[in-house]
Amino acid sequence: MCGIVGYVGPNSTIDVLLGGLKRLEYRGYDSAGIAVLTDGGELGTRKRAGKLGILAEDLTAAPLNDGHTGIGHTRWATHGGPTDGNAHPHLGDGGKLALIHNGIIENFAELKQELLDRGETFSSETDTEVAALLVGEVFRETGDLTQALRRVVARLEGAFTLLVMHQDRPGVVVGARRNSPLVIGLGEGENFLGSDVAAFVEHTKRAMEIGQDQIVTITPDGVEVTDFAGNEVPTREFEVAWDASAAEKGGWPSFMKKEISEEPEAVAKTLLGRVHDGRVTLPELAAIGELLDGVDRIVVIACGTAAYAGMLGKYALEAWARVPVDVELSHEFRYRDPVLSPTTLVVSVSQSGETMDTLMAVKYAKERGARTLSICNTQGSTIPRESDAVLYIHAGPEVAVASTKAFVAQVTALYLLGLDIAQRRGTMDADAVAAQVEELQNIPAKLDQVLESTATRIAEFAPWLGDTQSVLFLGRHVGYPVALEGALKLKEIAYIHAEGFAAGELKHGPIALIEPGQLVIVLVPSPRHDDSLHPKVVSNIQEIRARGARVIAIAEVGDVAVVPYADEVIRIPFAAPLFEPILGVVPLHIFAMELASAKGLDVDQPRNLAKSVTVE
Ligand code: F6R
Q1: 3-246 maps to which CATH number?
Q2: Which residues of the chain are in CATH 3.60.20.10 domains?
Q3: Residues forming the active site
Q4: Torsion of CA 223, 284, 262, 192, to 10 degrees
Q5: Across residues 27-31, what is the average pLDDT?
Q6: Cα–chain-centroid distance for residue 524?
Q7: What is the model's pLDDT at position 179?
Q8: Distances in Å between the alpha carbon of 557 and those of 260, 435, 490, 592?
Q9: Residue 413 — pLDDT band, cuts 50, 70, 90?
Q10: By alpha-carbon position, which residue is closest to atom 5 of ligand 1?
């Protein structure tokens, strides 16, 4: 939530800031603003409520003088509504200092009162302005921007990334972070700061992590990182694994459509280099290898779509590795005194690696003696840093707020983990592992088939459903998390009321919701699976049809049993039971996107949301 970019260097600062903000806009789009130290030595700022485009148009209509030092911000509002006045940057030291912030300063009311008592005046309702005024006061006293920020962060409670610049310090931007993201981009004669590497990847792929409670000062020729006490700290450089073009729309009408089309590739990339000769090899897990050999319980913590991926992981991990698995929403987990021990593995699943609820749950698990593994997409993000080991999904940047390709890649990573533990513990023989590995390796090609055969069909009928007020999703076994995911996507981007249910639960209450015309989407397991689920789901469909429901079935190619009871059948190829949901979810992603598009909605930036939820 909130995107932050900072720049010092010879190029057009306004261009660098706007380019960086464009790539960070997924983090929040309530307002945008920049501050630039002009070549004339003046601090110029411009900020506007609404999406970045409004600020960009404003800057075209009335250009701001450019310079070589600047900071930029895109906001997801917390304290104070999305207005021009509440947009960042905020000013201190009589307008000579500019500051931007991501996070929440929890003790701002008390600090504000203190500043008011000293005669300072406020021009916004934000918590951020107290930091701008406080840093300004200390800078006036010391003339040292890094020291001023250090003194102020010592007084702040809550989570924050702050970037600050001052008119009297050209070529200097100082940043500080506590439980909010910040990464350094290392250039030649120029340096960058960003909420994530997307902010600067078009200029440099060399990046450096900054730890919690650290302060960074960038100049065109140098980067200095210290802890909050002022001691130098070790840093870690890394190379960004993807090109700037990966975060471009590249001719697609939306990032969501592009990212759905990348679902096959996302699975393939997660598997790349990790499966050989029917075996799984995960060298990244060496640090927790001993625990994995004897692990007696796994707790998966995640939020939203990542939690549904975790639910699917439970089916596979328990079936293959024979380890009990609990899946918990991160924000519930740490407030209920969970039982953890040194033989518990806590697996966090997070695309962004920055979700505050999940980060706090990871820290909590560590404090309670559990070992932690992060399944993550974003290099240089906080959750992997805080974990004992990390399994990157390598899905490439996911820009649309609604998570799609990360979901299938997260499921794939959890399945790899399940097979790895099964190999270690000998709960599956080599042939059984090889059979599952083969299934996994076949998924990208099958996903290509799903996209090819369903995208056009769904695009044709989805607009006819534009007036739909409510949609129910049903699934059994691994179809259940997919039903939840389908419902979440529809709520999130099409603003249509939707609920996902375990089909077996229907008769325990939800069937009362069925009235003539109610749209129900059902995940139908293959009749060829060696279980009795297919006829049960077909019976569930008959029960709701008898009560007037309109049914869309997601069913295997050749499953004729569903035809008499469905208004529409979307076909997916055969896959073994645990792999079917990776195929079945794609039509639901497409369905939500097409319905939202038919309603004229912005599928990439749905209202009230931000991609990376860095506040609790
Ligand atoms: C839904 C969605 C969210 C995220 C959730 C966790 O489409 O994107 O529910 O899955 O906010 O985010 P990460 O994976 O970044 O921790």
Answers
A1: 3.60.20.10
A2: 3-246
A3: 2, 611
A4: 0
A5: 87
A6: 29
A7: 84
A8: 21, 22, 25, 22
A9: very high
A10: 304
Where in the sequence of the chain do the CATH 3.40.50.10490 domains occur? 255-598
351 Cα to the center of ligand 1, angstroms: 7
* Token couple for 319: 């079936």
pLDDT at 117: 96
* Per-residue pLDDT tens digits for 274-296: 999 999 999 999 999 999 999 99
Nearest one of 367, 348, 332, 404 to 590, comparing CA atoms: 404
Q: Could you identify the atom of ligand 1 that is nearest to the CA of residue 358?
A: 16
For the chain, the maximum distance between any two Cα atoms, rounded to a whole number of angstroms, is: 80
* Burial profile 304-331: b = 16 or more Cβ within 10 angstroms, e = fewer: bbbbbbbbbbbbbbeebbebebbbbbbb
Mean pLDDT, rounded, for 149-164: 95
Tell whether ligand 1 has an atom less than 6 A from the beta carbon of residue 358: yes
Tell me the mean pLDDT in the region 113-128.
94
pTM, rounded to two decimals: 0.87
Q: How many CB atoms lie within 10 A of CB 526?
A: 21
User: Which residue from 256, 259, 329, 355 has its CB within 8 A of the most atoms of ligand 1, so it is best to mutate?
Assistant: 355
Could you give the 3-state DSSP secondary structure of residue 143?
coil
Q: Does ligand 1 lie within 6 Å of residue 404's CB atom?
A: no
User: Domain 255-598, what architecture?
Assistant: 3-Layer(aba) Sandwich (3.40)
Where does residue 427 rank: exposed (0-12), middle (13-18), buried (19+ CB within 10 A)? Answer: middle
498, β-bridge pairs: 471
H helical segments located in 195-303: 255-261, 263-271, 289-294
- Say if strands 173-178 and 183-186 run parallel, antiparallel, or are unpaired: unpaired
Tokens of 220: 């065109």
Residue 427: CB partners within 8 Å, gap ≥ 6?
320, 321, 322, 421
What would the DSSP string read from start to end of 76-98? --SSS-S-TTTSSPEEEGGGTEE
> What pairs with residue 159 in β-bridges?
104
Residue 103 CA to ligand 1 centre (angstroms): 18
Residue-averaged pLDDT of the chain: 95
| pLDDT score for 361 | 97
Write the residue with the smallest CA distance to atom 16 of ligand 1: 350
Please tell me the predicted confidence (pLDDT) of residue 471: 97
Cα of 610 from ligand 1 centre, angstroms: 9
Q: What is the pLDDT of residues 365-390, one digit of tens each?
A: 999 999 999 999 998 889 999 999 99
pLDDT computed for residue 217 by the predictor: 98
Mean per-residue pLDDT, 536-565: 96
